[in-house]
Design a protein that fits this description.
This protein has one helix spanning 2-29; strands spanning 31-35, 49-54, 86-90, 97-104, 109-113, 116-119, 122-123, 125-135, 158-167, 173-178, 191-192, 197-201, 223-224, 228-238, 257-258. It is mainly beta. It has one domain (2-258): Umud Fragment, subunit A (Ribbon). The strands form 3 sheets. Strands 1, 2, 3, 4, 12, 13, 14 and 15 form an 8-stranded antiparallel beta sheet that branches. A 4-stranded antiparallel beta sheet has the order 7-6-5-11, with no helix packed on it. Strand 5 and strand 6 form a beta hairpin. It is globular. The relative contact order is 0.20. The model is unreliable at 18-23 (pLDDT under 50). It is a single-pass type II membrane protein. Belongs to the peptidase S26 family. This is Signal peptidase I. Its main location: membrane.
């Protein structure tokens, strides 16, 4: 009887190990789960959105594995990202995963002028898209408080941000939010994107740590190609509460929502 018991334990351990191996291979090669922790990509992505990152989109690098442990130099099976893609990448200096929109390709000249994005000397097309409204209350596990264009707003009040639809030179359109007309990154120098690197920005333009802040000053700066992890294509579900397991706080309008 003891031998049967021991055999059962061994088989259970084997099953768990194989399940972990299969899950690790799936996460490394195909799709990686990602939970949105901040509001830098509103209103495209909300705090609490849960999505899977397509890791086949751009090929693989050392950062494709957990803890950047893949024994890969550069990128293999590399595919070039497209302007306007929403991309998950490893921050080059902070060793954490970020998600932003790809704005600048190698060789591009990027500049913000009075809050308007300019690519290669030309302003992007903008169209009014009304107002983005949300409740002024702590959000997500970090209990982050949203910034509002109409501040001061009391807890429980309606937090507003101006919304515009921005169209990039390749025809990709997406919404952006504006909180202030004189934010520190509303006017920038011209950034020339080096070969093999990319320029990223958040859609919540006045609440995003992105490539407008140079790496030398502690910001993101340009992101080398080998730090790309994958493309975000679709929100699977979204939780408005402190945890994704609080199913009673799930947002019913965001199930399987495509990411534009």
């Amino acid at each position: 009887m003891a031998k049967k018991s021991e055999g059962g334990i061994v088989e259970t351990v084997k099953t768990i190990v194989w399940a972990l191996v299969i899950a690790g291979v799936f996460r490394t090669l195909f799709f990686q789960p990602f939970w949105i922790p901040s509001g830098s990509m509103k209103d495209t992505l909300l705090i609490g959105d849960f999505l899977f990152v397509n890791k086949m989109a751009y090929g693989y690098s050392s950062h494709s594995c957990p803890f950047s442990a893949c024994p890969i130099s550069g990128r293999i099976f590399a595919r070039e990202p497209e302007r306007g893609d929403v991309v998950v990448f490893r921050h080059p200096t902070k060793n954490v995963d970020f998600i932003k929109r790809l704005i600048g390709l190698p060789g591009d000249k990027i500049q913000m002028v009075q809050g308007v994005l300019h690519i290669n000397g030309e302003p992007v097309q903008l169209a009014d898209a009304g107002t983005f409204a949300e409740v002024k209350a702590p959000q997500g596990p970090q209990q982050l408080m949203p910034r509002c264009e109409n501040d001061p707003v009391g807890i429980g009040g309606t937090c507003l941000k101006a919304r515009q639809t921005e169209t990039l030179p390749n025809g990709v359109s997406h919404d952006i939010l504006n909180i202030s007309d004189n934010w520190v990154a509303d006017d920038t120098p011209v950034f020339t994107v080096p070969e093999g690197q990319y320029f990223f920005m958040g859609d919540n333009r006045d609440n995003s740590e992105d490539s407008r802040f140079p790496a030398a000053a502690g910001g993101l700066g340009f992101v080398p190609a080998e730090y790309l992890i994958g493309r975000a294509d679709r929100v699977m579900f979204s939780s408005a509460g402190k945890s994704l397991f609080y199913f009673w706080t799930w947002r019913p309008d965001r199930f399987f929502k495509a990411i534009d």
